[in-house]
Design a protein that fits this description.
- The chain is mainly alpha-helical and about 110 residues long.
- It contains three helices and no strands.
Length: about 110
C-alpha cells in the first residue's frame, strides 16, 4: 500500500475536514428559517461531496489511480459518524441544560426556606 500523496489538495482536504467538523458539531445554527425545505440535506451533501472531490484530487494531482471504493467508504463513515456525533451532542446538551435547571431550581427553593 502506497502512502497518501502530499500535495496542495491533501492540505485542502484536511482543512475542509476540520471546517466540516466545526460546522456540523460546534457551530450553532441560526434562528432564521431555511431558504427552502430540506436545506440541511443539500448542505450535508455539499460538505461530503466537497470532501470526496478533494480526496480524489489528491490522487489526480499525483497521477495515480483514484481509490473510489476507499473514498466512498470513508465518506460513508464520515457521514454516519457525524450524524451520530450530532445526535450525541444534542442529547448531552439537553441533559446538561436539564441538570443546570434542576440545580438552579433547587437553589431557589433552598434559598426561600432560609
Amino acid at each position: 500500500m502506497k502512502a497518501l500523496p502530499l500535495n496542495k489538495f491533501t492540505a485542502a482536504a484536511l482543512i475542509w475536514f476540520a471546517a466540516t467538523i466545526y460546522a456540523l458539531l460546534f457551530k450553532e445554527g441560526g434562528n432564521s428559517a431555511p431558504p427552502f425545505p430540506h436545506f440541511d440535506k443539500v448542505g450535508h451533501f455539499g460538505l461530503f461531496f466537497g470532501q470526496a472531490w478533494l480526496c480524489a484530487k489528491i490522487f489526480i494531482q499525483d497521477n495515480r489511480n483514484i481509490p473510489y471504493k476507499g473514498i466512498l467508504f470513508a465518506a460513508l463513515l464520515f457521514a454516519v459518524g457525524s450524524e451520530l456525533a450530532q445526535a450525541l451532542s444534542e442529547i448531552l446538551k439537553n441533559r446538561f441544560q436539564t441538570a443546570f435547571f434542576c440545580l438552579y431550581l433547587r437553589q431557589l427553593l433552598h434559598h426561600d426556606k432560609n
